[in-house]
Write a structure and sequence with these properties.
Elements (H helix, E strand, L loop, with lengths): L16 E3 L1 H7 L13 E7 L24 E7 L4 E8 L5 E3 L8 H9 L12 E10 L4 E12 L6 E14 L4 E4 L13 H7 L7 E5 L7 E6 L1 E3 L4 E3 L1 E4 L14 E4 L1 E5 L6 E3 L4 E5 L6 E3 L1 H10 L12 E2 L9 E6 L2 E6 H4 E4 L5 E4 L1 E3 L5 E2 L1 H4 L2 E6 L4 E6 L7 E4 L9 E3 L12 E3 L12 E4 L21 E2 L5 E6 L3 H7 L4
Parallel strand pairs: 4-9, 5-8, 17-31, 18-26, 19-25
Antiparallel strand pairs: 1-29, 2-3, 2-11, 3-4, 3-7, 5-9, 6-7, 7-8, 10-11, 10-27, 12-29, 13-30, 14-28, 15-18, 16-17, 16-21, 20-24, 21-22, 23-24, 27-28, 32-34, 33-34
Length: about 500
């Protein structure tokens, strides 16, 4: 859709919100160079299916357990002069690293790996090697990295970040792209300032927060706004959800855990039905292709999509014709109900004929909402006040704006003209006989930062109150044990 000007009702926020740098420059070509005082940086989120950026021969027909139909990338430029690289956006991990080993992946993956770009510290006049190494373990695969400090340039902004610490891979397994972990950083999940920390520390953003709009599968592009919001990506107000503290969360890790009230289904031309025992903590993970839910709840939902049980790989194969059906699965939170259309929920794998799978997989360890949910939500991640602000996603243009104060989100209204639907209160219950609506998680500690969870992205991390020091520095990282099966089934695109 064409871009829209900022609506008049935002004028009252003039002292609190400012248009992001790229839009200011476009309005006044004679304006002086943009400074970071404007307070936000917006980067396009490029879908892996976007052939304008990536090859259409990227190997999506490979093993379903290890690949996804869509993954989400942003471009960074690292070093002096800048070297462009694509990295996968991941709210479920905490560190930035680049340079997967393209020689260790298959031919189809190798092509995609090369197109994602490479960083060479020897070609940067501002690079400095720290001499420290680490192994990052994910649900699928690992990355052995050496830490480097260098400049990171930001698209759409004249400003860059100086002396940013990140990892350069010396060897990887089952990874053909780097990762931009945008979870909690210094003194919470990392011993140094991560990317989100540096944005605020270096005054590129005024707040330690960002907003995520992945975009629909059809649009093939979304936007992430660090330090601000894009009011043209939602309509109505935003609902505020407190992030559950790590010490009270199912896995004892500082992730974006929130309480979900229930899940319901709205079949075409039928009444909405609520699944019983669907109230539980969930965390929001853009690095996970699939949504993970307790096994009995997953089976109950799959049955309503016409599937009695999973296939040999643990996936629920469904009729591809359902992608054209006007139904939805609904996720209710306090003051909010996010509707996920069937098309966005269903995972489509090209072939002759194509194969379609329910975008939910069972996990007895914990629940997370991955990309099959997040495509339909507009989410603000507030790492200052430990809040999630969320509403239904929409798209009526592009008006990214900087936030001066997180509290003002309570009065902000999106420009798209749709209102947040109320949480379902009068519905017919559907029995979902869960053994435990809030499954416990067996946690163990490890000297690595890898807590595999959902197929290749989510890391473990120390909580700010739970990390224990070890001789020689560093900390013991809490992680989730014995979830290899769930990790494989989640099928993150890596």
């Amino acid at each position: 859709m064409p871009s829209m000007a900022a609506p008049s009702f935002l004028s009252s926020f003039a002292l609190l919100l400012a248009l992001c740098s790229g839009h200011v420059a476009a309005q006044n070509k004679s304006a002086p160079a943009i400074t970071h005082d404007l307070g936000c940086v917006h980067l396009p989120i490029v879908h892996s299916t976007n052939v304008n950026h990536f090859s259409d021969k990227r190997g999506v027909q490979l093993k379903l357990a290890n690949r996804s139909d869509v993954a989400y990338y942003a471009q960074l430029s690292i070093g002096t002069p800048p070297q462009p690289v694509y990295v996968q956006l991941d709210t479920g991990s905490f560190e930035l690293w680049v340079n997967p080993d393209c020689a260790t992946v298959s031919d189809g993956d190798s092509l995609f790996c090369e197109r994602a770009g490479r960083y060479d510290s020897a070609k940067s006049s501002t690079a400095s090697k720290l001499g420290t190494k680490k192994t990052l373990r994910y649900g699928i695969g690992t990355a052995n990295i050496s830490y480097v400090v260098d400049t990171v340039s930001l698209a759409g902004s004249a400003m860059g970040l100086e002396k940013v610490q990140f990892g350069v891979a010396t060897g990887t397994e089952d990874h053909f792209s780097g990762i931009l972990g945008i979870g909690y950083g210094v003194d919470v999940a990392t011993p140094y300032r991560n990317f989100v920390d540096e944005l605020q520390t270096q005054n590129v953003t005024k707040v330690k927060a960002y907003t995520l709009a992945l975009g629909s599968k059809e649009s093939k592009e979304g936007v992430i706004v660090f330090g601000g919001v894009d009011t043209s990506k939602f309509g109505g107000p935003l609902a505020k959800l407190p992030i559950i503290p790590a010490t009270q969360s199912p896995d004892q890790v500082p992730r974006f855990w929130v309480n979900m009230k229930n899940i319901s289904i709205t079949p075409p031309n039928q009444n909405t039905q609520v699944y019983t025992n669907s109230s539980m903590p969930v965390f929001l993970d853009s690095g996970s292709t699939m949504t993970l839910l307790p096994p009995n709840l997953t089976r109950a939902i799959a049955k309503d999509f016409g599937v009695d049980g999973p296939d040999a790989n643990g996936f629920f194969r469904i009729d591809c014709g359902l992608t054209n059906v006007n139904g939805s699965l609904n996720f209710a939170f306090e003051g909010l109900n996010v509707r996920v259309p069937y098309k966005e929920l269903i995972r489509e794998v090209p072939g002759s004929p194509p194969a379609c799978f329910l975008g939910i997989t069972p996990s007895s360890n914990f629940a997370l909402l991955g990309d099959t949910f997040l495509r339909s939500a507009y989410v603000v991640f507030d790492l200052e006040d430990n809040q999630i602000w969320m509403t239904q996603a929409a798209n009526c243009g592009s008006t990214p704006m900087a936030l001066r104060n997180m509290q003002d989100l309570g009065s902000l209204v999106g420009a798209c003209g749709t209102t947040v639907s109320a949480v379902v209160t009068t519905s017919t219950s559907v029995t979902s006989p869960l053994n435990n609506a809030n499954p416990t998680v067996d946690v163990s500690d490890t000297s690595q930062s890898g807590a595999p969870s959902t197929g290749g992205r989510t890391q473990g991390a120390p909580s700010s109150f739970g990390a224990r020091s070890i001789p020689g520095g560093g900390s013991v990282f809490w992680s989730i044990a014995s979830i290899w099966t769930a990790a494989t089934m989640a099928g993150k695109f890596i």
